[in-house]
Design a protein that fits this description.
FlgN-like; 143 residues; single chain; Methane Monooxygenase Hydroxylase, Chain G, domain 1; mainly alpha
Length: 143
Amino acid sequence: MTNSDIDHLTQAMHKAQALKLVLDSEFDALKKQDLTAFEVLQAQKLEILNFLAADELMEKVKSHTEDQDKAASSVAIWDQVVALMNECRDLHRRNEILISHKLETIRGALQTIQSPDPLNSVEIYDRLGKIRPSRGGAAMGDA
């Protein structure tokens, strides 16, 4: 394994650490409902993920796993990258659960606002100007 390969693995480890920090910041922004900060973090996260998913990096990793003369330091770096990416996966899932919960809360609030309230029903008049009895409740005289 060349120094260039080790450099790529080291860069991957630094990017994985940066991704972990971005995911933690994303969670804080979601808790505070700071959508501006959340959108800025999305751009940063996308940049990091693009680097980690780059074909060049994947080729280095593939050659690393096939190389019989692996250096101990590169194995240790790769193990750290894998561990960090597993942590990032878990942090991403945590953020996804928070977003889903917030969306469900918003949907519930919208449904409550949009659903008709039986206590505030609109009275409807017929052609003769008399109040038409409501369909679901008792007539006014019966109440």
